[in-house]
């Protein structure tokens, strides 16, 4: 691929979203967050036009600064951020915080980071609260569209179970659903469900960490196409019609992830999909189990729909 051959998909709003974006999580301290600035600028220089951040990442400020300082017209850069769990009760105010922190006047996509709501100060044990429900939170997000401060809204970490519940009351179909997705978590039920509803899926942790990159089949395909296993995973995402937001701080890998992806044969796309193990490698902080039930951010896997 050359710089001029980036792949774009179309959201249900009609907006174009670059298939490959840059994941902008950079740690948990202010110093780590600030350290993201040079590699975000590097990515923009290397042709990236899709930046994925979140209130919870702590990098909205450096992302906004990079967008404003890079010399690229704002309308050419697609910026996603996310509503945190402990702001479900103050959606409009939280958006204003994110805009103020970033220095931007709008976001291209605003996602509900997780379906479960937290108390204002959730603490280390993730104090999940019953109200507002994710349907009520999403209804408040729908109101943001009229302000022009978000161009599209969507969700993240939503399963078929929770999307089905949300769609019972939603007036606006989510434009996107961002989830952990890689060859060992291929989302075989969720992906076709989202496609049927007109919801584009975005993969976070798209290269699947070491277990995927060291999978013998991925290594074999990487050798076949003369690329890395990570590039095979990203090419598989594109072939399935999903966007992906890999994090890379290295300029050479940024270029490889964006401009040097192979075009997989349909047989190889199917082969990669057979590697699905229904595992979640990306572990959110906090307790991992309660009363014998696996947990994610205070909810059981059953509540998550996993």
TrEMBL record:
<dbReference type="GO" id="GO:0016616">
    <property type="term" value="F:oxidoreductase activity, acting on the CH-OH group of donors, NAD or NADP as acceptor"/>
</dbReference>
<dbReference type="InterPro" id="IPR018170">
    <property type="entry name" value="Aldo/ket_reductase_CS"/>
</dbReference>
<dbReference type="Pfam" id="PF00248">
    <property type="entry name" value="Aldo_ket_red"/>
</dbReference>
<dbReference type="InterPro" id="IPR020471">
    <property type="entry name" value="AKR"/>
</dbReference>
<protein>
    <submittedName>
        <fullName>Reductase AKOR2</fullName>
    </submittedName>
</protein>
<feature type="binding site">
    <location>
        <position position="113"/>
    </location>
    <ligand>
        <name>substrate</name>
    </ligand>
</feature>
<feature type="active site" description="Proton donor">
    <location>
        <position position="57"/>
    </location>
</feature>
<dbReference type="InterPro" id="IPR023210">
    <property type="entry name" value="NADP_OxRdtase_dom"/>
</dbReference>
<keyword id="KW-0560">Oxidoreductase</keyword>
<feature type="domain" description="NADP-dependent oxidoreductase">
    <location>
        <begin position="20"/>
        <end position="272"/>
    </location>
</feature>
<dbReference type="InterPro" id="IPR036812">
    <property type="entry name" value="NAD(P)_OxRdtase_dom_sf"/>
</dbReference>
<feature type="site" description="Lowers pKa of active site Tyr">
    <location>
        <position position="82"/>
    </location>
</feature>
């Amino acid at each position: 691929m050359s710089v001029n051959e980036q792949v774009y998909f179309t959201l249900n709003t009609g907006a174009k979203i670059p298939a490959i974006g840059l994941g902008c999580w950079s740690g948990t301290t202010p110093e780590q967050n600030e350290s993201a600035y040079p590699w975000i600028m590097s990515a923009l220089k290397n042709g990236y036009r899709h930046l994925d951040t979140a209130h919870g990442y702590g990098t909205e400020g450096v992302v906004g600064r990079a967008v404003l300082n890079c010399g690229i017209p704002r309308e050419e850069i697609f910026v996603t951020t996310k509503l945190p769990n402990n702001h479900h009760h103050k959606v409009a105010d939280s958006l204003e915080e994110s805009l103020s922190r970033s220095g931007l006047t709008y976001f291209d996509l605003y996602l509900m980071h997780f379906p479960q709501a937290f108390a204002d100060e959730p603490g280390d044990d993730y104090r999940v609260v019953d109200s507002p429900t994710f349907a009520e939170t999403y209804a408040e997000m729908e109101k943001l569209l009229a302000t022009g401060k978000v161009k599209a809204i969507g969700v993240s970490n939503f399963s078929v179970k929770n999307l089905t519940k949300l769609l019972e009351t939603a007036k606006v179909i989510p434009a996107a659903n961002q989830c952990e997705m890689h060859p060992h978590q291929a989302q075989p039920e969720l992906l076709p469900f989202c496609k049927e509803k007109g919801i584009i899926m975005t993969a976070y942790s798209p290269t699947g960490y070491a277990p995927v990159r060291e999978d013998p089949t991925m290594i074999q395909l990487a050798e076949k196409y003369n690329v890395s296993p990570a590039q095979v995973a990203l090419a598989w995402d594109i072939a399935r019609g999903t966007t992906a937001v890999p994090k890379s701080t290295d300029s050479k890998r940024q270029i490889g992830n964006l401009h040097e992806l192979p075009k997989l044969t349909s047989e190889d796309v199917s082969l990669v999909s057979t590697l699905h193990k229904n595992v979640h490698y990306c572990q959110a902080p906090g307790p991992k189990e309660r009363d014998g039930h696996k947990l994610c951010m205070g909810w059981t896997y059953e509540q998550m729909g996993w």
